Amino acid sequence: MKTSIPRYLQLTAILCVTLVALPPAFAMDVMERIITTQTSMIRREASEYQRKVAEAHARAYMAAQLRSYRESQSATGPVTKGKKHAVAENQAPATKDEKKALRKKLPRYVAIETPTDKRSAPGTKKDVMIFDTQNESLVSNNVYDMQSSPAMGAMMKVETYSAQYVGTGL
Question: Which portions of the sequence form the region Disordered (predicted)?
Fold first, then answer.
C-alpha cells in the first residue's frame, strides 16, 4: 500500500529547507556590499601639501558662498546712493550676522577635493578631505581615496560625518 505525504507537510519541508539555505546566501550578499563599501573609500593620513590645498579650496568655497549671500542680500536690500567701494565691501570678512546666516544655509560638513599623490590607492579617482563649515577648519588630517567620482552636491557618508561633495569649492 502506497502512502502519500500530505501536502501541508511537503510545503513545510520546502519552507524549512528554504529558511535554512537563505541566511548564508543573505549573509554573503551583505558581506559583499560591506566589502564594496569599504573598498570604495580608503582612509589614510594626508600629506602636508594635500592639507594645504584642501584648506585653500575650503577657503575659496566659503568665500564663494559669502559672495553669493552678499549678492542676494544686496539685490533684495535697499539701494543707497553714494556707495563707492562695493567691491571692497564684497571682499570684506564676514560679519557675525553673515556668519550666522551662512551657518543656517550651508551643510555642516563638506567634502573638499584635494590632489592625489603617490600614496593613493590604485584606481583612485578623487581624494577628498572633510571640512567643518561652522568651525571653518578641517575635521581631521585624514584623506579619503574615492574609487568613483561623486556628483557635485551629492551627500556622502564618511565615517561618522554626512558631508556634501563640493569638489574644489569653485
Answer: 72-100
